[in-house]
Design a protein that fits this description.
It is a single chain. The chain is built from nine helices and four strands. With about 220 residues, it is an alpha+beta fold. The radius of gyration is 17 Å and the shape is globular. A four-stranded mixed beta sheet has the order 1-2-3-4. Helix 7 packs antiparallel against helix 9.
């Protein structure tokens, strides 16, 4: 068995097809963007968190791999997509020659990333959860602002002009900082849409031995 790389997974034709087709399902049911922009951002954030907190390069690499694969289960169904994703990822990782122990780590991370069924089973899972739940941005919205299907989740994402996650290893702190456009959504709607995700981020940060804070337009909300 060999140590597979993020580049192997990112460039694998089967993986790329599953991500594309899974995102097409999200288009059909009216969900925000779940394609390459999303999974790449989640991978980058998760790896950056682990790097800043002193985790090994290999752990960072595994986080990137798990994050890139985490939403392929949407190709089957949005409900239980984390579990479907883990099942779909298994033969891919085997084909690429991954070590069984690392396969287990990646599958557990994929299977526990969704707030409906997540558990903080590892630091790897915690980093990917934070990367996933903090990807709130205008460019994820597919609907037009005037579209009848433009719902609360669309409004919240569309209102976020800029969002970034900063990690301070010395202060043991992860901060999600959102800059919003007035009049599109509200703080109340943000919490209606995303409170379970933000609470999960807090728990994930605790798993990593740090604190998680949310700042909206300069005001600390969590």
């Amino acid at each position: 068995m060999s140590q597979i790389t993020f580049e192997q997974v990112r460039n694998d034709p089967e993986v790329r097809t599953y991500i594309e087709r899974a995102d097409a399902v999200m288009v059909a049911i009216g969900y925000t963007e779940h394609s390459f922009a999303h999974v790449t951002r989640v991978a980058d954030t998760a790896a950056r968190i682990l790097a800043a907190l002193g985790f090994s390069q290999r752990e960072q690499e595994l986080a990137r791999i798990a994050a890139f694969l985490h939403d392929i289960g949407n190709i089957v169904n949005r409900q239980n997509h984390a579990h479907y994703g883990a099942v779909l990822a298994y033969p891919i990782l085997q084909r690429l020659g991954a070590d069984p122990g690392e396969i287990a780590e990646i599958l557990s991370t994929i299977g526990h990333h969704d707030e409906s069924s997540a558990a903080l089973v590892s630091t790897l899972a915690a980093a990917v959860i934070i990367g996933d739940k903090t990807d709130v941005r205008r460019s994820r919205v597919r609907q037009l602002l005037t579209d009848a299907e433009f719902d609360m989740h669309d409004r919240v994402n569309y209102s976020v002009r800029q969002s970034q996650v900063s990690v301070d290893g010395q202060q043991r702190l992860i901060v999600m900082d959102c800059q919003t456009e007035p009049g599109v959504s509200s703080v109340v709607e943000f919490f209606q849409a995303f409170l379970p995700r933000m609470i999960l981020c807090q728990k994930a940060a605790e798993k990593l031995g740090v604190q998680f804070r949310l700042s909206i337009d300069g005001t600390e909300m969590l």
